[in-house]
Amino acid sequence: MNNYHCLSDFFVFAFYIPVNSLKCYQCNSLDNPNCLTAHLEPKECVGEHKEAKFCVKSIGFLNKGTLVIRMCGADYSIKNSCRPHKMEEGSLTNVCFHTCNDDACNSTQHQTPLIHLNLSSLFLIFCKMLFDFF
């Protein structure tokens, strides 16, 4: 009997594969101003976020300034996109979502390609206006 117990323990440990959940930064700049710029500790995507497949950093612009939400994500329809979003108070803002698949990849230092594209577009518009002026 003891040999069977040892053998079963061997198979349990031989095929044991630890499963770690994804770790993402999880914050909202309305509740935590440090979400905009500070380096926070990433948290495991557990509970309501246990099905997360990627990390998300969303950026929106409100009357009060920039809104940043960093979270775990499972909804593939938001992957790397910008879209209008109606806020709770009724105002409409454009929100850009940047998604990534690695632990802690939605940090403040991780810039979204969409923002770079928006900044490049603004620069080109400025240059056109400047040259049209002269």
TrEMBL record:
GO terms for biological process: regulation of synaptic transmission, cholinergic; sleep. Keywords: Glycoprotein, Signal. The keyword Magnesium does not apply. This is Protein sleepless. It comes from Patella caerulea.
